[in-house]
Write a structure and sequence with these properties.
390 residues; alpha/beta; seven-stranded mixed β-sheet; three-stranded antiparallel β-sheet; 14 strands; 14% strand
């Protein structure tokens, strides 16, 4: 075997050694953390100090009037539903393709998910499918800006307004993306963001809910701290507070969002040029700034090759991400599967692979990833007859 042979056939991998760990945090961050340790508590009950500063910084960046920090993007989505009064007997429309949290929070409040088909070019919720599938019990819509691609917000906002539906933006993967001059997450009743390890801004775990509704923001502030306010116990809530250390780490990255986003975009553009001769690479034609936040979506020509191509790329050293499936294909979601399948989602996702063009990668590493993609995708005919079980 030689280096030209695919690793899946016993050849040498393009990236033979594991990639080194890399962080955006430098000596300046270490000094800030040391100062925090010496001068203020690691956490506070009602989000003072660094948490409050992060919230202020986030409102300035997104243009929202209120920001409430929580411990995860999933927590932000959960609080949004509870704060809007969604519960048993209600239905919530949600895209059929996303990370599981976009739908699991609906079950957590006792409501029923209504799965909506997607647009083939952006993988985002289809407004036309929403019109067809919503029922009189549908009270809210969770619109997911998947892979940093904004939903088609103008018709979606108009439909939700005329139908009396709450509009929750799951912007966990779209920090840094704008649609018609407005930041994703700032166009619905509220927007939810994530700061976990794969995101544009990352602090281990963390999340944020933004809104222009002061009463909604105050309800979420209480929900995140077991339903407490500074005046007593006002409602049933959760332990969703964000600590000051995580808030500090997130806060110092906000001014660098454009730097991170632009680096990701350069990575994505380079890889797109290497991949497009063999596969379709989905790009955003709708927003001024596609965040390329989580993944570069690639559609293979034949669905049956997906598992084999994923395995071949992994063995070449390519760390694939966002290998999601149709949400109602999960066993615990199958009772809510629609009578009419989401046909565009079914057809698209069966061909989808995705790669995170992280700003933590160096140019030399991206070039190696490009070589690996070229090596594997240029030999799809060779892979088409193979069967691999992941």
């Amino acid at each position: 075997m030689t280096a030209q042979d695919l690793a899946i056939n016993g050849g040498q991998s393009v990236l033979a050694a594991p990639l080194p760990f890399r962080s955006v945090f430098g000596e300046e961050c270490a000094e800030l953390v040391s100062d925090l340790m010496a001068s203020r508590p690691l956490s506070t009950l009602f989000g003072n100090h660094d948490v409050a500063e992060l919230e202020c910084t986030f409102t300035q960046y997104t243009g929202a009037q209120h920001a409430v920090a929580v411990n995860a993007g999933t927590s932000a989505l959960h609080c949004a539903l509870v704060a809007l009064g969604i519960g048993p007997g209600d239905e919530v429309a949600v895209t059929s393709f996303s990370f599981i949290a976009s739908a699991s929070v609906i079950l957590q409040v006792g409501a029923r998910p209504v799965f909506i088909d997607i647009e083939p070019d952006h993988l985002t919720l289809s407004v036309e499918s929403l019109r067809q599938r919503r029922t009189p019990l549908t009270k809210a819509v969770i619109a997911v800006h998947i892979f940093g691609f904004p939903c088609d917000m103008d018709p979606l906002q108009a439909y939700c307004e005329e139908s009396g539906l709450f509009l929750i933006e799951d912007a966990c993967q779209s920090l840094g993306a704008f649609h018609r001059g407005r930041h994703t997450g700032s166009m619905g009743h509220c927007g939810c963001f994530s700061f976990n390890v794969n995101k544009l801004v990352q602090c281990g775990e963390g999340g944020m809910l933004i809104t222009d509704d002061e009463e909604l923001a105050e309800r979420v502030r209480q929900l995140r701290v077991n339903g407490l306010s500074q005046f007593g116990q006002d409602r049933l809530g959760f332990n969703y507070t964000l600590n000051n250390l995580s808030a500090l780490l997130a806060k110092i990255q906000i001014p660098r969002i454009h730097e991170f986003r632009d680096k990701r975009r350069r990575h994505a553009q380079f890889l797109t040029e290497r991949i497009r001769p063999f596969c379709t690479v989905l790009t955003d034609s709708r927003s001024e700034c596609h965040s390329v936040d989580y993944a570069l979506p690639i559609l293979l020509p034949i669905a049956e090759m997906r598992e084999t191509v994923i395995q071949a790329l992994i063995l070449e050293g390519v760390p694939l991400s966002g290998l999601y499936t149709i949400l109602y294909h999960h066993d615990f979601m199958s009772p809510y599967a629609p009578a009419e399948p989401c046909r565009i989602a079914e057809a698209s996702i069966s061909r989808l692979i995705s790669f995170n063009p992280s700003h933590l990668y160096e140019e030399t590493e991206i070039r190696l990833f490009g070589q690996a993609f070229d090596k594997v995708l240029s030999r799809l005919d060779e892979l088409s007859g193979m069967t691999v079980c992941l």
